[in-house]
Amino acid sequence: MEEESINMHQKVFFNDKEKIAQFLSLSSVDEKVENLYFCDSIQKIFSHELPDKSHKSEVESSKLREEGNIQFQGSNYKAAISKFSAAALVAPFAESGESRSFSLALANRSFALLKLGEHKLAIDDIDLAIEAGYTEENRYKLIERKAKCLANTGRIKEAEKSFNEALKYLEFSKCKDAEKQKIKQNLENQKQNMSITINNTLTSERKQSLKFELQVSNPKLPAFSDAIDLRYDDVRGRYGVATRDIEPGTVVLEEHPVAALLKPQHNRTHCDHCFSKASTLPIPCRSCSIVRYCSGDCRNIAANSYHQHECGVDDYLETFNKDFHEGRDLGLIHHRLCYRIITQNKLGFYKENIDNFTRSNNKSGTKKWERGNICARWLSKHV
After folding, report:
1. How high is the mean pLDDT of the chain?
2. Which of 120, 118, 119, 146 is nearest to 131 (CA)?
3. Which of 18, 135, 154, 375 has the fewest CB atoms within 10 Å, i.e. is most exposed?
4. Is the pLDDT of residue 202 over 50?
């Protein structure tokens, strides 16, 4: 470990013995942070010009969407879905969060899903297309499609509401009055006949998934059940003791990780937020094409917390890893995970909790607390 520290000092300070000695002579954590932050090797990384890796293209998205339309016209719905998904992944977004290309790709994909009887997935795509700014003049078609999907899943009241919404958006259509009247009558007829034509047994046939969760949390450690008492001794460290009889299948511990990271080899197949398989219907980040999500909800959670800071900065971490860890995969993953832990909270959170971060508690953590101390000071000053 000591040899590893020496090697790191040599890399950070370009083997300048005077600068290494100066750093080692510093007694204050704050001074060490300042010294590291302004050293040449770190500043070199910050000055690194990032290449554009967004891979977003209006032209490419339009091309893929047209290829999907050809597959759709030939009733090759699965192939069409694949093309529409590819079009969605490369569709550029405006700063407002809207995207014409994305909305059209998802709208077309929802139609192919409807043809395959995938009503729930089609509804999700329709909602995302509308969120991305699907054109108002044709929105009635999309909302009518959503109403059909809702009806086919037994959600009659929601379907009726969507048919009414489609009638409202029909007013924005540019079709002629006579054609508009026909469409209006068709929507009214569908709404009236809906309860007759839809098999309502779908609702009763839905299976409720089993949900396991803590019944009552431990007052001291909320991740544990109140049926567990946490204790500590020098031999065993921390351990739990049951305070009462516990029935088989009872959840005694439920805790989400502070942060979790998807390995790069799974970026194209799994959701970057919840890690579930993204299947053939991925939802992209609005700014980059590197990560993908299983739903709009996962994308929005990531975008509103850590991914807004991660998006496009991987090159900084790759450069740091190359310079100081010989490009090892484990080193890069370690730094990316640390970065995600940091970016989940705003700077104010770290400033308010600086004392908690720098306080050592051997009963709940490692004695080697100084690195955490340095990180906390760094965050409070430079994040």
Report:
1. 82
2. 146
3. 18
4. no
Could you give phi then psi for residue 230, rounded to 5 degrees? Answer: -90, 130
DSSP 305-370: TTHHHHTT-HHHHHHHHHHHHTT-HHHHHHHHHHHHHHHTS-HHHHHHTHHHHH---TTTS-S--H
CA dist 202 and 7 (Å) reads 66
pLDDT at 178: 92
Q: Among residues 134, 135, 165, 121, which one has the least CA distance to residue 147?
A: 165
C-alpha dihedral, 172 to 177 to 183 to 188, nearest 10°: 90
pLDDT in tens, 140-169: 999 999 999 999 998 999 999 999 999 999
- The span from the CA of 98 to the CA of 132, in Å, is 4
Structure token digits, residue 292? 């993908």
- Give residue for tokens 């969760």: 213
The end-to-end CA distance of the chain, in Å, is: 28
Higher pLDDT, 199 or 15: 15
Alpha carbons within 13 angstroms on the beta-carbon side of residue 44 total 12
317, HSE (Cβ side, Cα atoms, 13 Å)? 19
Helix (H, G, I), strand (E, B) or coil at 292: strand
Rounded CA-CA distance 250/213 in Å is 8
* Selection from 87, 141, 91 nearest residue 114 by Cα: 141
Q: State the Cα–Cα distance between residues 11 and 42, nearest whole angstrom.
A: 11
C-alpha 26 chain-centroid distance: 41
Beta carbons within 10 angstroms of residue 97's beta carbon: 13
| Amino acid (one-letter) located at 372 | G
Instruction: Give the residues across from 230 on adjacent strands.
Output: 240
Per-residue pLDDT band for 39 (boundaries 50, 70, 90) equals confident
Would you place residue 19 in the very low, low, confident or very high pLDDT band (cuts 50, 70, 90)?
confident
* Residues shown for the chain: 383
Instruction: Provide Rg for the chain, Cα atoms.
Output: 28
What whole-number distance in Å separates Cα of residue 125 and Cα of residue 110?
6
Check if the beta carbon of residue 154 is closer than 8 Å to that of residue 111.
no
Which is more confidently placed, 289 or 211? 289
3-class DSSP string for 11-73: HHCCCCHHHHHHHHHCCCHHHHHHHHHCCHHHHHHHCCCCCCCCCCCHHHHHHHHHHHHHHHH
- Tell how strand 283-284 and strand 292-293 pair up: antiparallel
Specify whether the CB–CB gap between 65 and 105 falls below 8 A.
Answer: yes
